[in-house]
Design brief:
About 40% of the residues lie in helices and about 30% in strands. By secondary structure, it is an alpha+beta fold.
């Protein structure tokens, strides 16, 4: 480009342009004279400024959206960690329980007390279903545990069976009579043990039975221990299987020292023989 053309272009760039501001009132006109180059620079600066402000606004909106999304996923993963921890704890518990060798040991070992990413939602749903299954299994095992501890198991005293359950001749009168329990021959002074967990409902003297202890076990089970020399528990007392209830003797109507033992299921007496053996 020749020197002459360059000079002419520079003169045009710095040629003043008059900008007139015409108010609606009768006030005088406002005239502003600015070089063409200055006007172009102002327009360019305004354009860059507008672009910068809009960009900052967009970035701010994106930042808050990302912040909310990160907060959501953080909550999702926190819930997942809690769920996975519960599953791992349940797995450990059931692995321990079912590694035991018998139903008895399993039941005795049970504690008496305790819209985002599609992948995460699916995992949460599966984990929740697994927890429902685990909870159902735990409820079943706890139910079985309660039944186990309420069911009479084992002999209340070590001894020999001297009179069975059912029809027999009365040992004192010789008349036919129904025997509501079993008699276990045992030396006087032998500890009489509870055969299931429960609450003492009777502890006192009853004609014919002498000193008797009756324990309510729940699940419909009741046991009675009669002809004791001395009762050691009080009404309302909680007892566990194996706790000593009384000292054996020969009180009431008897022909010698023994324990009269009864088992009730619901409102009827049942044969205690089927409950004497330990059940695995």
């Amino acid at each position: 480009m020749s020197m002459h053309k360059t000079k002419r272009l520079l003169r045009k760039c710095f040629t003043p342009i008059t900008i007139m501001l015409v108010p609606h009132s009768k006030s005088k006109l406002w005239r502003v004279r600015v070089p063409l180059a200055g006007l172009l620079a102002a327009v360019i600066l305004w354009g860059f400024g507008t672009f910068y402000v809009v960009s900052i606004g967009v970035q701010t909106v994106k930042y808050y959206q990302m912040s909310e999304q990160l907060s959501y996923f953080s909550g999702q993963f926190t819930e997942m960690r809690s769920t996975i921890a519960s599953l791992e704890k349940a797995e450990e518990e059931f692995t321990r329980l079912f590694s035991l060798k018998s139903k008895k040991k399993v039941l005795e070992a049970v504690s008496s007390n305790d819209t985002g990413s599609p992948d995460i939602d699916v995992l949460k749903k599966q984990a929740a279903q697994a927890m429902v299954s685990v909870a159902s299994i735990k409820r079943y095992v706890e139910e079985e545990r309660d039944i186990y501890y309420a069911t009479p198991v084992g002999w209340p005293v070590p001894g020999a069976l001297s009179s069975p359950y059912g029809k027999r001749e009365h040992p004192r009168t010789g008349e036919p009579a129904f025997h509501s329990g079993i008699d276990i021959r045992v030396p006087p002074g032998t500890p009489v043990k509870a055969t299931a967990d429960g609450i003492v409902s009777v502890s006192g003297w009853v004609a014919g039975n002498g000193n008797i202890v009756i324990v309510e076990h729940g699940r419909g089970f009741t046991t009675a221990y009669a002809h004791n020399k001395q009762n050691l528990v009080k009404v309302g007392q909680k007892v566990r299987r194996g706790d000593t209830l009384a000292i054996s003797g020969s009180t009431g109507v008897t022909t010698g020292p023994h324990l009269h033992y009864e088992v009730w299921k619901g409102q009827r007496q049942v044969n205690p023989i089927s409950f004497l053996e330990e059940k695995s």
